[in-house]
Fold:
Amino acid sequence: MTEIGNKDTFRTEKTGGRISNLSPDVQLLIWWGLFLGMFFVAQIVSSIVIVAFYQTAEIGDLAKNPDNLNPLRYAQMMATLIGFLLPALIFQRLKFGKETGFNHANAVFPMYLLLLVPAMLYTLYAVIDISFFVNKWMPWSDWMKDAQQQYKALVEAIMDNTSVSVLVLNLITVAVLPAVAEELLFRGSLQRLLTERMNIHVAVLISSVFFSLIHFEFSGFLPRVILGMFLGYLFYYTGNIMVSIFAHLVNNGAQVIFMYLNKIGMYKINVDDPVMPKTGEFILYTATFAVLWAVFIILLKKKK
Structure:
């Protein structure tokens, strides 16, 4: 048996794709080409859909009518599927000859992680919240500031609805599809490919930085890098992409639900403006996360 966390755990499946015998560097170039090409196509397609329905693509104009944003939601779903999911699946087909071969998407999901992963994510938020304030001191925090404000106004407009059916649409748009597509692309494909040519920790960091950059939302750059690293290590240690998909889904889904509960007056919280944790809270939450992570590793070893 291979050790937990050893990158050889990702090499148990035979490669049979068209590019499997090429060097990791060439494969990385192919990955980049696929992603950039499909990302560009996704933006064109979503823009066409938006303009066809609204006769404008100006974010400020779209945010003025929160009751008529379903076409925008559908356009975002299409952009996620074309720009993130499709290049991941195409690349895996090229490398392994099948869509699930590169990320162990067919592996069994350990049921104890249904509780353990959300608990780890919850306790990690003390670090994520502090990184939000550290990020404010960084030079990139004001990059594309006007665009970020417009995007924030649009997100608020999308969430500005008390309908349960709209809540379901928002969960699909913001949580379900991004969790699946982004994990297959950034963890299941990019991170896995990077581990073939560099140290796992560097691979996790690079894929997490790119994961954060591609959101073009620099006021949350560092928090998203930390989240990405957490997702990356979940995938690395379990060898199961479904685990990182689940964690991503929990994170995004919780934000959608909290914003909905805030809208209907059941739970007052501003997920976009976290509070700086007190020293005692930070120590408690971080220590708890460390304990939970140790339990996570122990359980994985027992399973091995």
